Amino acid sequence: MSANPNFVMTGPARRVWMPRFLRGRPALVCGGALLIVLVIIAIASPWLTASAQAISPLNRLRPPSANLWFGADQLGRDIYARTLQGARVSLVVGVSVALLSAFIGLVLGVVCGFYRRIDMVVMRFMDALMAIPSILLAIALTTLVRGGMLLVIVAITVPQIPNVVRLVRSVVLTLRSQPYVIAAIAAGTRQPLIMVRHIVPNALSPLIVQATYVCASAILTEAGLSFIGAGVPPEVPSWGNIIAGARSYFQIAPWAIFFPGIGLALTVLAVNLLGDGLRDSLDPRASRRL
């Protein structure tokens, strides 16, 4: 039986090679693929590069070459090794902040949407947090209590919680008026069971999309904090402190800033593309149009 060049897969075979939720979703495909590559690079960076802290005065501010792919910084350290290992810090901080803020925001948002007395107290506190610029609040927290990466994660998470709480609360208030929730209340179902069975599953879609944007914002915030010296310790390679250390040598060694800057931009772009793709895929109205 000869092969047909015009053969097009249908049925189960087509679903394997082209899942339906990926059709017409270039942002989701590109963002997900790029993010997977960055995660693999971050995980494998200790085996792909030499030590990021090794100082070589002979290589000081040496441009990119066959031995130093991204060049060397002002102390002769390999920028390629520091850039790849800096990806681990950014991804760990971004994912951790997204998960923490999503979990806390989900719990507080669901509770506020169901209990009006708690809602009045919690939402006024959220409004107070939102009145303070997030970067200033993060700087204040890291300055008052200096610590490591854990403190940086907490300091970035706190300003992100109000946005997530407000989002989940608005979804819960909408879901409370749905017929199936009203029927469950009329049947005498306990409120905690209604939250777990009917509210939380329907609030996960917008929460997942919001978490991707929180992740991108956290990566940028961590880079900004490290740039001004309020982020991770200097001995930990981070895109922010790599750029900060090389800013005085920008005119004679632009590669010391260019490569970590490209890594930061690509990571934020990948996360934002993934968030846009998930938003379109999880939107029922967009799904019906396809």
Automatic annotation (TrEMBL):
<comment type="similarity">
    <text>Belongs to the binding-protein-dependent transport system permease family.</text>
</comment>
<feature type="domain" description="ABC transmembrane type-1">
    <location>
        <begin position="87"/>
        <end position="275"/>
    </location>
</feature>
<dbReference type="Pfam" id="PF00528">
    <property type="entry name" value="BPD_transp_1"/>
</dbReference>
<protein>
    <submittedName>
        <fullName>Oligopeptide transport system permease protein OppC</fullName>
    </submittedName>
</protein>
<keyword id="KW-1003">Cell membrane</keyword>
<dbReference type="GO" id="GO:0055085">
    <property type="term" value="P:transmembrane transport"/>
</dbReference>
<dbReference type="InterPro" id="IPR000515">
    <property type="entry name" value="MetI-like"/>
</dbReference>
<dbReference type="InterPro" id="IPR050366">
    <property type="entry name" value="BP-dependent_transpt_permease"/>
</dbReference>
<keyword id="KW-0472">Membrane</keyword>
<keyword id="KW-0812">Transmembrane</keyword>
<feature type="transmembrane region" description="Helical">
    <location>
        <begin position="91"/>
        <end position="115"/>
    </location>
</feature>
<keyword id="KW-1133">Transmembrane helix</keyword>
<keyword id="KW-0813">Transport</keyword>
<dbReference type="GO" id="GO:0005886">
    <property type="term" value="C:plasma membrane"/>
</dbReference>
<feature type="transmembrane region" description="Helical">
    <location>
        <begin position="135"/>
        <end position="158"/>
    </location>
</feature>
<feature type="transmembrane region" description="Helical">
    <location>
        <begin position="252"/>
        <end position="275"/>
    </location>
</feature>
<dbReference type="InterPro" id="IPR035906">
    <property type="entry name" value="MetI-like_sf"/>
</dbReference>
